Amino acid sequence: MRILRPVATLSTALLLLAACGSSPSTPAAAPATSNPHSGHTATSAPPPTPLRTGERFVDLALPQAYTPQAPNGGTDDYRCFLVDPELTEDAYLTGSQFQPQNAAIVHHAIFYRLDPQQATEAAAVDAQTPGEGWTCFGDAGVEGQTAWVAHWAPGAGETLMPAGSGFTMPPGSKLVMQVHYNLLETGAAGQTDQSGIQLRVAAGSTPLTKLSTALFPAPIELPCAAGESGPLCDRDAAVADVAKRFGEEQEKHLIEGCSAGKITPGDTQHCDQPVEGAATIYMAAGHMHLLGRSIKIELNPGRPGAQTILDVPQYNFDNQALVPLPKPIQVKAGDTVRVTCTHDAKLRKMLPQLQKLPPRYVVWGEGTSDEMCLGILVTARPA
Fold it and tell me: Where in the sequence is the signal peptide annotated (predicted)?
């Protein structure tokens, strides 16, 4: 139960109900490999890019190793740790390099900026929870809107914000480091992790373009593959199982989320979401789990001037880096962002982590054996 502190050198999420759709037919699947998106890689990260003018590094790490334990009979542990970069004046977060100490069990990590009240609440939750950090499925585990300012998933190295831009970090800002631990692998039980992160911080004396992260989800309604059967192939049973492992709010999200309760099972799902106001998109990423085949993020599809923001026709779980766009894209109020994902239940029999699990109707869920379809955009609003 300790706040992470320096150890060495120093968007509003647009989750609006929208029009969604699905297609029961599957596009041509990417050719299967002997080990399609294995789920984890453990390669050494390259050295960071040299500091840009006005930047410095702040290195943070867990003060002691944490041993993940999956609650509620699941195989996933979402653990939040309070991070204190010890900022005494206005600053900007202009880049980061997460350092997963045990890549065999670290599925992904997200960093949320907390306001002072949220930081106080997080510290109280931390103090009341035995061991390092606290359980936090789905978010930072504190009340109110938090700002997503950094994340890591397999394949990501150092993430640099575009020159002249960054996430605002007022004096005293703290972060929540949420780590998703995947314990599906044989031998994962009892393993420990002591991950850290190197933040790239710029002084606030020179104003930079203020960034925010916008999240665009789409539903998952993936039936069992042909020839599969079992109790969890029933959607109601699968939804109840997700609620058991991650809480009743997960079930509510499934029913009242983007699909507004309209369920059309199929391999491919999409969601159209309106843009609230003018902004510039600088970076993009897509996130799915192990059954993902493809993901695409589009602007105003089917309308004059439509653009593709991100297109990953052969999704690889081990390559999820947040990438800068070749050219920033301008959006305005009334524009539409569409996220489309294709998943493949047949991959379940090809992946060692999933082969031992019973077949299931796959819905949106926090677990590695569940699925997601999430577009992640780094944006800036006009000054």
Answer: 1-28
